[in-house]
Amino acid sequence: DAGVTQSPTHLIKTRGQQVTLRCSPKSGHDTVSWYQQALGQGPQFIFQYYEEEERQRGNFPDRFSGHQFPNYSSELNVNALLLGDSALYLCASSLDRERRSNEKLFFGSGTQLSVL
Amino acid sequence: GENVEQHPSTLSVQEGDSAVIKCTYSDSASNYFPWYKQELGKRPQLIIDIRSNVGEKKDQRIAVTLNKTAKHFSLHITETQPEDSAVYFCAASRWGYSTLTFGKGTMLLVSP
Fold first, then answer.
1. In Å, how far are B39, B105, B110 from B85, measured between CA atoms?
2. Which of B1, B4, B71, B73 is the most exposed place for a label (fewest CB within 10 A)?
3. Best of A32, A45, A100 to mutate (most B CBs within 10 Å, chain B)
């Protein structure tokens, strides 16, 4: 049973560019959340997707957008990259809380984004 | 929104000692409090969690306590081992299990 998989593992971009990160949830999970983890900090919630819609959003600008596909996989897009966007981007999956309240949040290994 | 404070930022102990990490939260409506362990270069992994209707939960050498009145919760690790060395994060949530607010982490170093 595969866990949460993310690609790519590392990425280097320059300021102003755009980036797309990808995530496949754990088998059986239907909800995908994205987190940003800056060096030495805890993960910070970006947004959550369920049934191909953005269900909740954290305190991130509109430059951060996402998408969920019918197979539950997800993409995170960041436009007009800034130096401060350099971070580890974590994808996490879960099963919709209304159906299985004991399900936990499982994280992928992340994509390390460096903006130069 | 929710704010989670975590202390200490680093904790060094000798193998076999106990370690305690403390967190406070601001939103009294938060009802789920997980703890994650993150080894260098690896994903955060859930090690234990507690809901607001429970005061304490244990799993072998790990225990978590919750004081809803004071809005405090703590992680206790007994008989520490070198493989316990990692960064530990506490988190809180009021909307369910996936929209978590994390603390800044505690680096635990267990010396042989």
1. 8, 13, 6
2. B1
3. A45
Pick from B96, B97, B102: CB nearest A42: B102
| Chain B residues within an 8 Å CB radius of A59 | 1
The CA distance from B18 to A41, in Å, is 24
Q: Specify the pLDDT at position B96.
A: 63
- pLDDT of B49-102, one tens digit each? 998 887 899 999 999 999 999 999 999 999 999 999 999 999 999 866 668 999
Q: How many Cβ atoms are within 10 Å of B55's Cβ, its own excluded?
A: 12
DSSP states of A63-110 as a string? TEEEEE-TTS-EEEEE-S--GGG-EEEEEEEE--TTT-TT---EE---
The full DSSP string for B51-101 is ETT-SEEEETTEEEEEETTTTEEEEEE-S--GGG-EEEEEEEBSS-SSS-E
Please give the structure tokens belonging to residue A52.
């191909």
* Distance in angstroms between the alpha carbons of the first and the last residue of chain A: 37
CA atoms of B97 and B8, how far apart (whole Å): 25
The 3-state secondary structure of B25-45 reads: ECCCCCCEEEEEEECCCCCCE
B33 close to B50: Cβ distance less than 8 angstroms: yes
Q: Letter for the amino acid at A93?
A: S
Give the model's pLDDT for residue A95.
83
